[in-house]
Specification:
The complex is a heterodimer of chains A (185) and B (120). The radius of gyration of chain A is 18 Å and the shape is elongated. Chain A is built from 8 helices and no strands. By secondary structure, chain A is mainly alpha-helical. Chain A is 68% helix and 0% strand. Chain B is mainly α. Helix content of chain B is 73%, strand content 0%. Chain B has helices at 2-15, 23-34, 45-54, 63-108, 114-119. The longest helix of chain B is centred in the last third of the chain and has 46 residues, at 63-108. Chain B is rod-shaped. The N and C termini of chain B lie far apart (126 Å). The model of chain B has no long low-confidence stretch (mean pLDDT 71). The chains are: A mainly alpha (185), B mainly alpha (120). The interface between A and B is large, with 44 and 31 residues.
C-alpha cells in the first residue's frame, strides 16, 4: 500500500513518526540521492555516504516542519542534500589529493581503464576549482530526469540565473581541460 | 577542441551515477535516522495554550475546566474584596461625619463643660 503513495503523502506520514513510510521514502530515493551526492562531491568520494546520511537524517528529524503544498518533496529534499554536500566540502581542508572512487566498467580492457582513470582525474581536478554554485549547477544538470526549472528550484534561484551558472561552469571546465591537455602534450 | 572537452565532461559525469546502494547500507541508514527524535512541528504561540487547556489535567479534570475555574475564583474574589473596600470607605466616611456633627452639637451646648465633652 505504501509503495503506491506519492512522496508528499509519505512525507505527511513521516511527519507523524511513521517509520515504514520513512523506510519507503529512503528506498525510493537513496540511489538517486547518492548519484547527486557523488556529482556534488566530485574528488571527495569519502564524503558521499556521509552527505547522503546527513540528508536522510534531516528528512526524518525535520519531517514535522515540512509543509505539504509548499512545493514538491524532491525539490525540498535535493536542496537539503546539496546543502549537506556544500557543508561537507566547506568543512574539508583543501588538500592537493583527489580522492576519486573510480567507477570503471569491468568489461573494459586495461588500456581503456587507464584512459577512464585519466579522464576522471582531469575532470575532478577541474571541477574542484569551480565555485560552489557552478559546481552544484553542473551536478544537477546531469541528474537524470531533472529539468532546468527543477534544478533552479533546488538551488532556489531563477531559471535564467541557473542557466547562466551552468554556462559559466561549462566554459570554465572547458578552459581548464584544454589547459591540462596542452600541458600534458 | 570544445567538442572534445564536452565529451569528456559528459562521460565522466554520467559515470558518476554509480551503482545501487547496498541493502545493508540502506537498513543501517534507516535504523540510525529513526533512532533520533523528531523535531516538534512549529506552531503559533497561542496554539500551545489552546492545546494545553484541551488536554486532561490532574484529578481527572480537563485543564480547561481548571483554568476557567481559576479565572472565575480570581474575578469573584476580586469583586468581593472590591465590594468590601467600597463598603469600608462608606462606613469610614459616615462615621467621620457623625462624629463631626455630634462634636459640633456638643460645642454649641453652653451647659456642657470641657470635662463633660471629654466623657462623651
Amino acid at each position: 500500500m505504501l509503495n503506491q503513495k506519492t512522496d508528499e503523502e509519505l512525507m505527511a506520514l513521516v511527519a507523524n513518526g511513521h517509520r515504514l513510510a520513512y523506510d519507503q521514502l529512503v528506498r525510493r530515493h537513496v540511489n538517486y540521492a547518492t548519484a547527486l551526492a557523488r556529482r556534488v562531491c566530485v574528488g571527495h568520494s569519502g564524503d558521499v555516504d556521509d552527505v547522503v546520511q546527513d540528508a536522510f537524517i534531516k528528512l526524518w528529524v525535520s519531517a514535522p516542519q515540512w509543509k505539504a503544498g509548499k512545493g514538491k518533496f524532491t525539490t525540498w529534499f535535493y536542496r537539503v542534500l546539496v546543502n549537506a554536500g556544500i557543508d561537507r566540502l566547506r568543512a574539508r581542508k583543501p588538500t592537493g589529493e583527489i580522492d576519486w572512487d573510480v567507477l570503471v566498467d569491468p568489461a573494459v580492457n586495461a588500456e581503456q581503464d587507464l584512459l577512464v582513470r585519466e579522464e576522471n582525474s582531469m575532470v575532478a581536478a577541474a571541477i574542484r576549482n569551480l565555485p560552489e554554485k557552478q559546481r552544484v549547477a553542473l551536478a544537477l544538470c546531469y541528474q537524470e530526469g531533472m529539468s532546468n526549472r527543477e534544478a533552479a528550484d533546488v538551488m532556489n534561484i531563477h531559471i535564467k540565473a541557473y542557466e547562466a551558472q551552468l554556462g559559466r561552469a561549462r566554459r570554465a571546465l572547458r578552459q581548464q581541460l584544454e589547459h591540462i591537455k596542452k600541458g600534458a602534450a | 577542441m570544445h567538442e572534445y572537452s564536452d565529451k569528456i565532461i559528459d562521460r565522466t559525469m554520467h559515470r558518476l551515477s554509480g551503482g545501487p546502494v547496498s541493502p545493508q547500507a540502506i537498513d543501517a541508514l534507516i535504523a540510525r535516522a529513526t533512532a533520533l527524535p523528531q523535531e516538534k512541528a512549529a506552531q503559533p504561540f497561542w496554539a500551545g495554550f489552546l492545546q494545553s487547556i484541551a488536554t486532561p489535567g490532574p484529578f481527572g479534570l480537563q485543564q480547561q475546566a481548571l483554568v476557567l475555574g481559576l479565572v472565575a475564583v480570581v474575578s469573584f474574589g476580586g469583586g468581593i474584596m472590591q465590594g468590601y473596600g467600597q463598603q469600608g470607605a462608606a462606613i469610614d466616611a459616615s462615621s467621620e461625619s457623625a462624629i463631626g456633627i455630634s462634636g459640633m452639637a456638643l460645642v454649641a451646648d453652653d451647659d456642657l463643660t470641657s470635662d463633660d465633652m471629654g466623657l462623651i
